[in-house]
Amino acid sequence: DPPTGACYGSIVSRGRLVQDDLVHHNARIGLTKDGRFVVGYFNVSQFDLQELVAGVLWIVRDGRVWIEDSLEEEDMSVQTTGPDFPTVSAARTAVGVTADGRMLLLTISGKTGVDGVDLRRMAELLIAAGAVQAINLDGGGSSTFVVNGTLANTVSDTCQSNRMYTCERPVTTVVCVHARLEPKCYNRSQPTWGAECSGHGRCDSAAECKCGPGWCGGLCHEICPTVSPSISPTISPTLSPTEITIHSAPSWLEQAPSCLLYTSPSPRDS
Q: Structure pTM?
């Protein structure tokens, strides 16, 4: 909320519920503690969530542009652009999920009413990149993309200290993606099966566990997940070594399916 600096939408960070917004009905994307993405309209209490952030408009649903339907469904009072919000050229930020559970982050630089993209073009770009589900996040001057500590896009807000330049806008919530460091075993003399890999794998010469059948994780300490049957909501296979950190109403559930679940297999392709 620009006038107050408050954050719209429900937020879960590192497994902790920061805010549960039961007033505004908008699309959400979450990561469950067992490594599945949840996308759409759902109640926080439905899932054991590790991370959750809300957006404005579910722009890609089941691999197609879903903006018009989403406009009828969602609470548009949370945006300040006005009725031209979906069609105006502006800086945009969105997060999507591919059919095999990989996360996509897309930021397009611009300035509202001057350049950038509208939401249909944003959705088309995400679909071209493989997204089957995607939600639009806060855009405009809030669209900031940082890679390894370096600003990677052109921000649009004018700096207060020097109006010749543009600066990042202070925001209440950011999404961070980083690789999780897997633990290593410690038998560097010769590969053996043993306690170093929880008794379920072999510690090789690179001090990495090679797990036996049915065992996963850096120390072979987790039972490999199985593919659940295709039901509503849908679930796709395998767990993710990616860590996504987000800092920081019951009637909705009548829609079927109201959300889609995907599992994230790789940090490098996200």
A: 0.67
